[in-house]
Amino acid sequence: MNVFLSNIFHSEDRLELHYYMEEMKGLVIFTDGSKMDGRVGCAFVVFYNETELDYRKFRLNESSTVFMAEVIAIQQAVQYVRANDLGQVNTISGPRSALMALSAVEEARDIINNIKEYKGKITLTWIRAHMGNLGNERADQLVKEARMISDETISFVLSRNQIKMKEIKL
Predict the structure, then answer these.
(1) Which of the residues 118, 130, 132, 163 has the least number of beta carbons within 10 Å of its own beta carbon?
(2) Which InterPro entries match (predicted)?
(3) pLDDT of residue 161
(4) Is 42 exposed, middle or buried (0-12, 13-18, 19+ CB in 10 A)?
(5) Structural domain includes residue 85
(6) What is the spatial distance between Cα 142 and Cα 23, in angstroms, rounded to a whole number?
(7) Mean pLDDT, to the nearest integer, of 124-152?
């Protein structure tokens, strides 16, 4: 899966990055992730036109960063698209940092590269948070609910940077 910023890369790439400015048309997935009071969650919600079809929400371990929550939300959305053979999908995401990592030509993080390997047609689109968009607000609500789930639904090992930061704090 290739990611491109529309003014830099060629249109034959399969994963495009845009800014969201239009109404929900066709199959659209909104993603979000956040951390508050030591609790981390992420979610995605699937719409067809303006009708909600499905959603998933995940609680992550407290050592997770907001960035990882945002990336995992996108990863889970891509897995959903793949598992359900959805074809062309517009994935809308508030977190610009995750989208920028996906648009990088070279990336060291495996999770980012795994997302980029998907061979279907997904357009990744950035949307400004808290601007009243139905899909984005619903994803935000699901993330708040995900943070309240009692047990972690997704966990992973600390990154090298997180380990270094913990050692510095000790």
Answers:
(1) 132
(2) RNaseH-like_sf, RNaseH_domain, RNaseH_sf
(3) 61
(4) buried
(5) yes
(6) 21
(7) 85
Q: How many domains does the chain have?
A: 1
Q: What tokens does 79 get?
A: 């897995």
CA–CA distance, 77 with 31 (Å, rounded to integer): 7
Query: How far is 45 from 28, CA to CA, in rounded Å?
Result: 8
Note whether residue 1 is domain-resident. Answer: no
Asked if 108 and 85 count as a contact pair (C-beta separation under 8 A), the reply is no
pLDDT digits (tens, 9 = 90+) for 12-61: 444 455 545 556 678 889 999 999 999 999 999 999 988 999 999 999 98
SS3 165: helix
Q: Note the pTM of the prediction, 2 decimals.
A: 0.77
**Structural domain includes residue 71:** yes
Distance in angstroms between the alpha carbons of the first and the last residue of the chain: 40
CATH number, domain containing residue 27: 3.30.420.10
Residue 114 lies in a domain: yes
Give the pLDDT mean for 73-84. 90
d(CA 82, CA 61): 25
